[in-house]
Design a protein that fits this description.
4-stranded antiparallel beta sheet, 4 strands, globular, binds flavin mononucleotide
Length: about 140
């Protein structure tokens, strides 16, 4: 039983977003995360990235510091960070959201919803997303 899993949730604004940027990010993330024992999920739209990462503390911190230096996005807000005993996305080196099943409206984002989201609300988005995943396993 692993009890030293760290998880983080952050939101950011894509910089010059394109579908091919997203494809490159996903390919690289899955390759690296697999090696680093990291799993998680990434929601992506042209105006928002929202990512959940979980794994060994050291690897999460290292990966997040690389992500914060990436110039493909800006305005990175850490919405939650904490420890867990089990993974939400055990089978996903990085799950994406091709059908865009969840999203805030552009108006909500523009009016600053990200600054008001609580840790629990941020976590609930990913708990819900992980359950949707399970139905297809
Ligand atoms: C929105 C976003 C999400 C990312 N997610 C991950 C990730 O989960 N894992 C990862 O290794 N890199 C991720 N990256 C890429 C990193 O910023 C960085 O380019 C990469 O880790 C560098 O890998 P390297 O040191 O092997 O060259 C992400 C980048 C962006 C913009």
């Amino acid at each position: 039983m692993t009890s030293n899993l760290k998880h983080i949730i952050y939101a950011s604004t894509p910089f010059g977003f394109s579908r091919s940027d997203l494809d490159h990010i996903l390919i690289k993330s899955r390759y690296n995360n697999d090696k680093n024992d990291i799993t998680g999920a990434l929601f992506c739209r042209d105006d928002l990235y929202l990512q959940y990462l979980e794994g060994p503390e050291k690897e999460i911190e290292l990966t997040f510091s690389k992500i914060t230096e990436d110039d493909r996005h800006t305005e990175i807000y850490l919405l939650k960070s904490g420890m867990s005993t089990r993974r939400l996305f055990a089978n996903w080196a990085m799950k994406d959201d091709p059908v865009q099943s969840w999203m805030w409206t552009r108006e909500e984002i523009d009016s600053g919803i990200l600054e008001k989201v609580t840790e629990t609300e941020a976590m609930d988005i990913f708990i819900k997303h992980s359950r949707e995943t399970d139905q297809f396993l």
